[in-house]
Amino acid sequence: MSDVNKPAGEILVKYINSHEVSPLVNHEVLITLGWIIDDKSLIEPFLKHPDLLVSESCEAAISVIDMREKEKSTNVEDEMNRLYGDEYDD
Question: What confidence tens digit (pLDDT) does each residue in 26-59 have?
Fold first, then answer.
């Protein structure tokens, strides 16, 4: 989780854990977390949530985290190729 988003991510995880709210609210919070955190372990417990909307939202959020991570590594590789051309070989 980036330093800028870390406080928000921690607050949102605590919110889901400590409040009985609509599954739709938990859905929105989980999707948001997928975009702002890097540590999947913070939300993985929600994969076993009894409400299908919540557990599937957690799956979607984890997919977003994975996608962002893949984009980061692709961007790094593209930049290395741009800077070093054929000299760079992963």
Answer: 999 999 999 999 999 999 999 999 999 999 999 9
Q: How many CB atoms lie within 10 A of CB 71?
A: 10
Domain ranges (residues) in the chain: 6-87
Phi, psi for residue 15 in degrees, rounded to 5: -60, -50
Q: Burial of 9 by CB count in 10 Å (0-12 exposed, 13-18 middle, 19+ buried)?
A: buried
- The confidence score (pLDDT) of residue 53 equals 95
**Tokens standing for residue 40:** 């999947």
- 77 versus 14: the higher-pLDDT residue is 14
